[in-house]
Every structure is written in structure tokens, then in C-alpha cells.
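hey m, so remember when u said the C-alpha cells were messed up on ur end? i reran from scratch. heres the input so u can diff it against urs
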Amino acid sequence: MKIVITIISILLFILLFSCGQANETTPGSSNTSQISTIVNKGSDTLVNLALAWAEKYQQLFPNVEISVTGGGSGTGIAALINGTVDIANASRQIKQEETQQAKANGVDPVEYVVARDAIAIIVNPENPVNQLSIKQLSDIYSGKINNWKEVGGDDRIIVRLSRETNSGTHVFFLENVIRLGDPNNKTLFSTDTLLLPSSEGITAETRDNPNVIGYDGLGYVTSDVKVIAVGSKPDGPFVMPSAETVNNGQYPIARDLYMYTNGRPTGAIADYINWIMTTEAQTIVTQLGFVPIVKP
């Protein structure tokens, strides 16, 4: 009987040992690969550029996975404040109150300028108007000018298009065009302004409606809409948006595009931010119609 018990004990020990060996990680299994994941969210202006960067970077470094989503600059910054993203994209600078919220939540926003952009004023190709001053744009979007004939066009009611309020482009346009860059100016968009959720939506509506005026990041402008020359003064000069006129300061509605991290990043996030500043990454900026911060 004792012999039987001893044999059973030995068999059980061998069985348990074998199971333990089978559960150990073997070379070549997924557990041996160190995959770094970067969560990137925010500006719809930046989203196509961010997706292109992520795709290229993952080709170069397959051990890095980059998740990119839009939703607007406000959404990205809110996610950074809440600690749910590694990098927030924004087409405007972070606001003072957002920085205060972040610090209260233990988050230290660090800013990076990753590209530049011009906000193009677009109309339907049938519209005969070719140029507008910043003051005229302010008067149009605030509701002081309501008919195209008031600015040299046909006798048509002006239909105003804008991005939604969570958009960094909306905020920039409000502060720098409608309010003429004056921090004490409290002018608002006309209440009949149509708010659209995407740059593509503004382009599509402008293409189809001869009464429309809209604005879009230069990288989203297509050949089936008409771009208006803009002057900072009523008598000009009136300048078309381009990489050249943004870099030489001639085009008056230009801005930086940003990424924000929580503190100075390290590891995979730092490597990715550093790569975005390289000539290789900035070539993609040019290809998508934006303005590079590093000459490709």
C-alpha cells in the first residue's frame, strides 16, 4: 500500500512539474516583444497629418503602436488633463484656464510646435468676389454685412459656415479675425452661422452653395472651391495663402499647430516627438499642404 501511495505521489509531482514547464513563456512568444503604445488625440485640423506621421513611424519602428483620433483641440486637451492620452493635438494654444485645470490634476502640459497652417477663406467658384480684408471678414461673420453686394459681389444673402465651438480653428478664427486680435473685443459669431463638425463638411457645402463663405485649414482646401485673397488692411495688399506667404509673414491668417504632453516625455513618446521635428517627418507636412517648421 505504501508503495502504491509513493508511486502516485511521484506521478502527481511529474504531472504538476510538466504543467508548470508548459505555462512558462517560450522564446518567440508575444510576451517577449516589447510593444510601446502611444495614444494621440485632438485637433481635426491635425488628424490627417498625425495619421500620416503615425503610419510612417510604425513602418520605421514596428514595435511602436500609435493610436490617432480627432474630436477637436478642446477634446484632445481635455483628454490630456484627464490623463487619458499621451499626446494631445491642438490647432490653438492651450488656454490659461486649461493649464490651471491640468496642474490641479497633477498634469504639466508641455508645448511643441509641430507644423504651421494658413486658414484659407473659401467661397463657391461662381462667386465673383476675389479679395476681402480682415475687417470685412469680421463684419461678415459678426452679422454686420449680410449680402454679397456689400463687398462687391452679386445680390445674394451670405451664408456663413464655421467649425464647431470645440474646434481650435473656430477659436482661432473668433479671436484673430472676428475680434481682430483684440483681447478686449467681445464680438461673437452671428447667431445664424452654421456650425459644421469637420473641415470636409465646410468644403463640401461651399462647393455646392453659391451663397456660402467658409474657412478651412490650407491642407483641407480642394480644387473645387475658390480661395479668397486676404488683406490685413482695407486697401491691401491682398495675399493668397501658401507656405511661402505664411513663412514670410505676408498672409494674415496663419497659425502654429501644436502637440502637448504631460511633462517632458521619455522613452517612446520622446523618440516620436523628436522624429516629428526631423526633415523626414516635415516632408510629410509639405505633402499634405501644411507649412513645415523644418525645411524639407
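this time it looks ok to me. The chain has two domains: 36-115+257-287, 117-254. if urs says something different then somethings off w ur setup not the seq
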